[in-house]
Design a protein that fits this description.
- By secondary structure, the chain is mostly helical.
- It has 13 helices and two strands, in the order ααββααααααααααα.
- Helix content is 74%, strand content 1%.
Length: 330
């Protein structure tokens, strides 16, 4: 039976779904590990000295540059690997998806102006929840119980790792639900909507990873380009870079790691769906924090080690039992 189908074309390593998953996971992990460090350096670093010290406050321009680099990178990938392969996905669907996509990124980067990096990562680590909820309620998808348990374990592990209980009940300021937390909630919701839209494109139009990356980022570039010109933020950004030219190097690396990381993210969405993608990206965020702890010599508490074990347990169970969503009728 195998001779009839594969006589002319021997199976390649890339046809093995486990190999694909390993490549996608490592690609997302390596690129976004460095991306997370650069993001914190750019958005939370101090620029200048003494009274002239200032912060980077240009979240929309940063995402704008990021989307331009992502678009160029995706265009090159299509040119070299896909050629003239047609894309039948509706343009308006890309446009709608780009609104939630860039809204989530701008909200997430803006949140770093009001909350610390662990809080931001903790908020974003709950992404599998809206992806699953919206997938079940809007697309009527059904996931195996093992998938629910794996998502719960991974999110719980990240939450335990980042949770730092106050020693004194008098310290209450850190728990006020402020503007930064609202931005994270907005980002989380928009992430879920983006996941649903991507899942619809993948199921209805068989949209390729590179076409998805190119068109969503092109629409985002258009919308954000108009926004930063209208508000004048781009001119303030250019003035900032004149005072601190060294930031260009970090922004360029930030854009490149984002483009490479997004390539692997869209590959994961196309091959394994947005829920698996959200599990991979959630785990990456955990390791970004873990790497930060190791690099800066911080001691991990018992609760943090327990969180580490939960994340690895969730990953292992997902690899063994977390199959894809069951097909449902329209």
């Amino acid at each position: 039976m195998a001779a009839g189908k594969g006589a002319g074309k021997p199976a390649s390593l890339w046809d093995n779904m486990r190999i694909r998953f390993i490549v996608c996971f490592l690609g997302v992990f390596v690129c976004y590990f460095y991306y997370g460090i650069l993001q914190e350096t750019i958005t939370r670093g101090d620029y200048g000295q003494g009274e002239k010290k200032e912060k980077f406050r240009f979240a929309r321009t940063l995402v704008f540059i990021q989307c331009i680099i992502n678009s160029l990178f995706a265009k090159l990938l299509i040119q070299f690997f896909e050629g003239s392969k047609p894309d039948h996905t509706k343009s308006w669907l890309y446009g709608l998806c780009s609104l939630s996509y860039l809204g989530a990124m701008v909200s997430s980067n803006s949140a770093l102006l009001y909350v610390n990096y662990p809080t931001q990562v903790l908020g974003k680590s709950c992404k599998p929840i809206p992806v699953m909820i919206l997938g079940v309620t809007i697309l009527r998808k059904k996931y195996p119980m093992a998938k629910y348990l794996c998502v719960l374990l991974i999110v719980s592990g990240v939450a335990l790792f980042l949770y730092k209980p106050n020693k004194s009940s008098a310290v209450a300021d850190d728990h006020v639900f402020g503007f930064g937390e609202i931005l994270l909630l907005v980002s989380l919701t928009l992430d879920g909507l983006t996941g649903v839209a991507q899942d619809h494109m993948r199921a209805r139009f068989q949209t390729s990873a590179n076409h998805m990356m190119l068109n969503i980022n092109m629409w985002s570039t258009l919308v954000l380009g108009l926004a930063v010109l209208w508000t004048g933020e781009v001119w303030e950004f250019l003035s900032f870079t004149e005072r601190h030219p060294s930031i260009f190097y970090n922004i360029l690396l930030f854009g490149l790691t984002s483009a490479l990381g997004q390539t692997f993210i869209f590959m994961t969405v196309v091959y394994f769906g947005p829920l698996t993608c959200s599990i991979v990206t959630t785990t990456r965020k955990f390791f970004t924090i873990l790497g930060s702890v190791i690099l800066f010599g911080n001691v991990m508490s018992t609760m943090q080690w327990f969180g580490t074990m939960l994340v690895f347990l969730g990953l292992g169970l997902d690899a063994k039992f977390g199959k894809g969503p069951k097909k449902t009728t329209h």
